[in-house]
Specification:
Largest sheet: 3 strands, antiparallel
Keywords: DNA condensation, DNA-binding
Number of helices: 3
Helix content: 40-55%
Strand order of the largest sheet: 1-2-5
CATH class of the largest domain: Few Secondary Structures
Number of domains: 2
CATH architecture of the largest domain: Irregular
Protein name: Integration host factor subunit beta
Shape: elongated
Family: Belongs to the bacterial histone-like protein family.
GO biological process, one term: chromosome condensation
Pfam family, one: Bac_DNA_binding
Structural class: alpha+beta
Radius of gyration: 19 Å
Number of strands: 5
CATH superfamily of the largest domain: IHF-like DNA-binding proteins
Order of helices and strands: HHEEEEEH
């Protein structure tokens, strides 16, 4: 499902026009990105958590150049689904 399909589905379900739904959805994404960039997490009860996952510094190999490089410690965005969400998906997968 694409973002456009999500917008249409929400508009159909709620009766709100697509432009308003699109603006709201884009605002939600911006808030999540900005919050994670500040180092905080976003918790949505019953859905899941958007969190920063910390990666330690490590050595990596460039196989073609046969060199070793250090990858510095960094954070990557992650999503941890809520227990109810996980159970719903497990029950519906065929």
């Amino acid at each position: 499902m694409t973002k456009a399909e999500v917008i249409v589905a929400i508009a159909d379900k709620t009766g709100v026009d697509k432009a308003s739904v699109s603006t709201t959805l884009e605002s939600f994404f911006e808030i999540v990105k900005d919050t994670l960039a500040q180092g905080d997490a976003v918790y949505v009860r019953g859905f899941g958590s958007f969190v920063n996952k910390h990666r330690a510094a490590k050595k990596a190999r460039n196989i073609s150049a046969k060199t070793t490089v250090m990858v510095p410690a960094h954070s990557v965005p992650g999503f941890k689904p809520a227990k109810e969400f996980t159970e719903q998906v497990k029950a519906s997968v065929k």
